[in-house]
Amino acid sequence: MLDLNRLRALHAVAVHGSVGAAAEALMVTPSAISQQLAKLERETGTVLLERDGRGVRLTDAAGLLVEHAERILAMVEAAEAEFAALRGKVVGTLTLAAFPTAARGILPRALSILKRNHPGLGVLIYEREPERQLREVARGEIDVAVVQDWLTRPMPLPHGLSRAVLLDDVADLVVPSGHPLAGRRAVSLHDLPEGDWISSGPGTVCHDFLLFLLRSVEREPRIVCMAGEYPTQLALVAAGHGCALIPRLGRVALPEGVRVVPVEPPPTRRVYAVWRTRGGRRPAIRAAVEALRGACAEDG
């Protein structure tokens, strides 16, 4: 009979591309993965991994077994979710992740709600970028993720995932106090400056949205400073190095030397909770989504 843990190890190698990455995802040592695969090879009487340069490659037999393993693991997760729903108790361990500003602005309150209402539930928190979170939820490495997209640039949701809206987060223009727009009560999209801008790095959701937004009104920004954290962006604005578009969830205490100017219509990003559809009946996942909603309602 095939062992479930050994199938899980093989599936992780197929998904992550190496024994080391699979071990990291399953939170075990690489030698433990290798031992599981060696036992699986003996059980099946076939070679599953072949050397490929400095890495490994799955054989055709392994590929066939991975297809079955994926279905088996999905069925096991669905069965666990059904059984947990039958018991109705919020217990066990839940992995919860969020992009940086939500990890700071939402997760602390959500975690407090979970600890207060469900003391038997253990929660493991991660800070992740949205794209990585979606991959990890889809692969079963994270139970619930908090992700974002901009309403004019929606993020496609992979098959097999469900989501719930948590909040709409408005972004404002932030300029140095000596900037020509600093005294305005509000600006339109066509008023946005074309000069120096501060943003997160290329490929991030907010960077790509800033380019999209400005180009939609025929502006070509010069992004002269790139920083992943909004407090860093605000410090750069305060020093006079450019303007920034800062969501309110990401805004901390404003430093001296900056002015916040609302944009009309307001650029808005939507924040979601995402989980695997087949695990949605787990009481722990339902409790986590409820806690995230409660944390956002407290902020509102």
Tell me about this structure.
The chain is an alpha/beta fold and 300 residues long. It folds into two domains: 4-85, Arc Repressor Mutant, subunit A (Orthogonal Bundle), CATH 1.10.10.10; 90-300, D-Maltodextrin-Binding Protein, domain 2 (3-Layer(aba) Sandwich). The chain is built from ten helices and 13 strands. It has helices spanning 4-16, 19-26, 30-44, 60-87, 100-105, 107-117, 130-138, 205-216, 230-238, 283-299; strands at 49-52, 55-58, 92-98, 121-127, 144-150, 161-176, 187-188, 196-199, 222-226, 244-247, 258-261, 263-264, 268-276. The strands form four sheets. Strands 3, 4, 5, 6, 10, 11 and 13 form a seven-stranded mixed sheet that branches. The chain starts with a helix and ends with a helix. The model has no long low-confidence stretch (mean pLDDT 86). Keywords: DNA-binding, Transcription, Transcription regulation.
Which class best fits the helix and strand makeup?
alpha/beta
Report the sheet-strand fraction.
Answer: 25-35%
In the CATH hierarchy, the third-tier topology of the largest domain is known as D-Maltodextrin-Binding Protein, domain 2
End-to-end separation in angstroms reads 54 Å
Extended strand count: 13
Number of helices: 10
CATH architectural grouping of the largest domain = 3-Layer(aba) Sandwich
Largest sheet: 7 strands, mixed
Determine and state the CATH class of the largest domain.
Answer: Alpha Beta
Share of residues in helices: 40-55%
Can you give the mean pLDDT? 86
Unreliable residue runs:
none
Task: Name the helix and strand elements from N-terminus to C-terminus, one letter apiece.
Answer: HHHEEHEHHEHEEEEHEHEEEEH
Oligomer: single chain
Based on Cα principal axes, name the global outline.
Answer: elongated
